[in-house]
Task: structure prediction
Amino acid sequence: MTVEFASYTAFFAYLLSAALWIFRQRTGLNGLFAQAAALLALSTHALAQGLLWHQAQGPDLHFFAALSWVALTMAVISTVLTARKPLSALGILVYPIAALSVYANYRWGVHVTSALDWRLKLHASFALLAYAGLSIATLLALLYWLQDRTLRRRHLQSWLGVLPPLVQTEQMLFKTLGTSWLLLTLTLTTGTVFVEDMLAQHLWHKTVLTALSWLTLLILLVGRIRFGWRGVRAVHWTLGAATLLALAFFGSKFVLELVLQNS
Result:
């Protein structure tokens, strides 16, 4: 299978799965069709990434490749949550993002290996997983806020059927936030231990912004445990942490690789 075929198959399978989830809510279609399309999308997306790494003769973690890996991880998490809980809204949001990411990586990716030893690969892996986890948490926070707002106003909408009960959504949100915080801790720890010259490698600003995101999540989790923070306050802190991490990872990559064209 070629990179082009795998990329386009993943692209259309993601969109098909999202469409089937929407169609299911209106017609009661069996969710297995949407899940089968999602599994096809995940497998071909991973295959496309692997083929591109093979062509580059090593790991490619440039802007579009990293974005595609994050989206793939988000799609995997979404598929697992969708299979275990009534949370098809997450797939409806994530799958189009994953579709665009795999297409963008195929069309505009650099496809040149990143010169990293195993220590920096480990650090980069934790960073990608942390970003994917926090991105899922952000989507859960927004769904939680919409669900809470709708229920408070007593405007029962049909889309509420794609979500679990509000308490369950809240529990998933904070479990995801806790996991993201642990991954960020590992990211900062491996970065501190393994990165030799942060200034020369353009990593100071990444480290500072990642540390601020880590601190924001820590304050939110402590506030949740100690003071019972929830609702709009939890959503705001989640969005703050996600914004800081996005600036740390993709903001810097965008400027260095696409604006300054420094790979």
Remarks:
- The two ends are 29 Å apart (CA to CA).
- The mean pLDDT is 86.
